[in-house]
Amino acid sequence: MLLFAASRLLRAALTILFVMTFAFVVLRLSGDPALLIMSVDAPPEAIKAFRQAWGLDQPIWDQYLSYIAHAFTGDFGKSMRDGRPAMDLVMERVPATLAITLPALALKIGLGIPAGIYAALHRNSFADRLTMAVSVAGFTMPSFVLALLLVLVFAVNLGWLPASGADSPSHAILPIITLGAAGAAIMARFTRSAMLEVLGQPYIRAASAKGVEWRRVISHHALPNAAIPTVTIIGFMIGSLVAGAVVVESVFAWPGVGRLLVSAVANRDLAVVQAILMVIAAWMVMANFTVDIAYGWLDPRVRGAAAGH
Amino acid sequence: MTLLEATDLRRHYKVRAGRGPFGAKATLRAVDGVSLKIEAGRTLGLVGESGCGKSTTGKLVLGLIAATAGTVRYAGNDMPPTGSAAWRALRPRMQMVYQDPLGALDRRLPVGVQIMEPLAIHGQASPAERRERAAEVMTAVGLQRHQFDRYPHELSGGQRQRVVLARALMTEPDLLVCDEPISALDVSIQAQVVNLLLDLQDRLGIAYLFISHDLRVVRQVSHEVAVMYLGRIVEQGEAESLFAQPTHPYTRALVSAIPVLGPRRERLLLQGDPPNPVDVPSGCAFHTRCPFAVATCRAEAPVLQPTADGRQVACHRADEPALQVAA
Amino acid sequence: MGVPLVEIAGLTVDFGNDWRSRAVDGVDLAIAPGEALGVVGESGSGKSVTWLAALGLLPARARVGGSVRLEGQQLVGAPARLLESVRGKRIAMIFQDPSSCLNPVHRIGRQLGEALKLHRGLSGAAGEAETLRLLDQVGIADAKRRLSDYPHQLSGGLNQRVMIAMALAGQPDLLVADEPTTALDATIQAQILALLAGIRRDTGMALVLISHDLGVVAENVSRVAVMYAGRLVEEGLGQDLFDAPRHPYTQGLLAALPTLTGPRRRLAAIPGTVPEPGKAPAGCSFAPRCPLAEPRCMSEPPASRRVGLLHRAACHLQIEPGFSAGALPRAAE
Predict the structure, then answer these.
(1) Banded model confidence at residue A4, pLDDT cuts 50, 70, 90
(2) Most exposed residue of C18, C25, C100, C246, measured as fewest CB within 10 angstroms of its CB?
């Protein structure tokens, strides 16, 4: 088990290093930050001085190695805009993002899973078809369209909720619903098909043949098995807690990581973009790791797979 | 004439025995020193329980998977290495028929097109000749011409197995390796396919390696029979006498386990499951389940040896008359 | 036969709307307490569906008609609560693929314990003691260690023993074994069948053994019912039925079977295939494959007639014992 954990950690570290390298290369290829930040008609000396100050005049290899070396010490560079440490800028935005993505996750799970189970148990009923129709609408509609619709209805027409900003808890409601709706739709579909798959398994019929009442067959025999594939999708959703709100944060002017990313990219604020990508990668890797552990916990076949029975 | 001769074939797999990516490696000896001969126009039956290596042996003799060790000679020449041009040129001469006809067929293509496929792959004959030949072969296996344009799901299980057979026959092979060819079929349909296989052998002189767990069917189609246990042949001999008087204790248990319609016979009931092929017992692999095992059996692996009646048996106690009475 | 334990009368099962696609079409069958009855048939014969219908285990879209009585109590259309009290407690059932019939995420001990708590109210130490006794009864060595194993850690044969132990937990009057050894190797099949015979001897439990393998049935039951395309075509005491079958299908089935002893002869295959669902003929469903079929066979379904002591066959023709349709020359094969 220790070896297992160690190998997973090594793989995680390699993944993060890969993401950092990739982000570094792509960002350097995409244009000169000096020209953007200084404006094109700035005097050449000023631009040169800016490049020198940020080390942009060094060969790209040296820039890369020093970036990685500093990253190992926890130094992810400074924002080219206001000179503050990039990681600090990112970290102070994380709570705001989590403030909408965590409730949205609860909504996805709390709404999607029961809806999926209900649809599977009442397959081909009106309720099933309705749930699935709503779910198709939910995950085919782009989030900015849904966001605008919600704003039109609840902010503009009804005037119940604020349209954008982050001044009060009520400001969070529309972003949460926007984020949660699509995820709940995916969750419902996924849970339904996982559940239908399990309900067709011989052990479900065998449990009934044993005399177990149907409610208990569902709760004790079907659900624990249907949970196994569902964990994958929940893991994916947890993985996107930090990065999944870029569009929604922009639409609702919510001061989270996503909005910071959009402005940092627009400003060619390299250190900040890299720091954000780094945080997202680390978070994703952690979510994957958690999923693997959860798999082992839920599915004894995975747990014992390597034991060679 | 000997069509195919395999000598000391082995196929070992590295498997992980311990936990995690750094867990201990172990060797799974799927096939561990099998020698067999298939005569032209004759049938060798290969029987044994799941995991005994009989299917792997079937793939090894055709070179569909590479052997870890051992040699195969085909029509007097060494079998070319798997995947080489010479091997591919030889492939039309030897075909494989699998258990599940639906899985072996492409559900999106009419069966006629699939029957013609081997000729197309090996670049033989013009399209018109292929069609002509397909029609002949379909008639030979008892399919009707109008079924040429049917899709696999429109045919019954027995008809699909006929399609698979027809496809294998297109290149006029000398050898068919049939891996459980009728196990997926109902009893009344099994008889149709068994009769068809026998008729085809009569008319075309094809040799079969007939792999099956069903002893009754193997007896029906085979001239010779080899019995496998944990990757090795434990007994081999002429079909009728082998089933009438099995010598190796495993063969005896296997034969006596088959339920019959007539009066009940004495049954040699084995204890437990076959051992894990990753962890084959020392000495004779069967000693853990053998009611007659003695100390020698635990220490020394018996080799196949001819008995008085022309059988090959790998058992330390095969010659003891008392044992035959005990059964 | 005395008072039947289970009496099936006019049982029908439909999955579609067309009467031609009936999976079970008017089956009458009774089993006495302690009796061993074999049900033989090929795929699509309705042999399994009959018993799944009797226990209400078919999916909701299946429509079940007719009657199944357990000691007089009607099971067809019975409320869920009644059926749940019958399943496992009065009539237990085991299936073809034991490894996929056990819940993969629960330990063996827990799955057995569930049945014991349900049917006998046993839990805790008493439950565990009884679990161990059951595992021992079905011949599982080191039962204590097996309790914490998961199904995937056991072989198919061991899993079927666990399934049998679970079926015994409710001390049922009848065990329905649906192809219990089909997925197992020959030597393991022999072990499981010997185990079932031993349990029957010890407990007096009745057994319905459903199988496609005539040999398995012949060796393990006293009375046999042969099904074809959803109907019961012949029924009789085992030796009578196998020695002197009176329905052309049974005769054909026996002639199609290779043997392990005696001279090898060419198998007499039954031409054609089982009618597809929805394409059954109006008359006898075997008529299109029957070498003896007459015009009325195609139009009138034959009624079941008594042809001997406890021997019935559903055929228009009066086939004398000893005459075999399977030995007739075939037009097409």
Answers:
(1) low
(2) C18
